[in-house]
Amino acid sequence: QQSPTDLIRPRRPFAPQEVEDTTAARCAASFRVLMVAAAFRGKGLLQRHRLVNEALAAELGRIHALEQRTLTPEQWAEAQGGQ
């Protein structure tokens, strides 16, 4: 069975900063992800989530729930305290 990171990480142009399996038994059915991508610039929340869902279309059939936090690189830098 693939890990949550293996299921999601290879999908570009989105680079997950965090992937957490939130399934009670950690059986890779529900995830919380933080995605950072320049492709999110100028897009609203729904548009960003649609981009991620399209990129993960093949995997979504095996995923019960996907909680997304989608940020631009600038928003990510700001969230990290400007590091």
UniProtKB/TrEMBL annotation:
One CC-aspect GO term: cytosol
GO biological process per UniProt: intracellular iron ion homeostasis; protein maturation
Pfam families reported in the protein's UniProt record: BolA
InterPro entries xrefs: BOL2, BolA, BolA-like_sf
MF-aspect GO terms: 2 iron, 2 sulfur cluster binding
Family to which the UniProt record says this protein belongs: Belongs to the BolA/IbaG family.
Protein name (record): BolA-like protein 2
Protein's organism: Anas zonorhyncha (Eastern spot-billed duck)
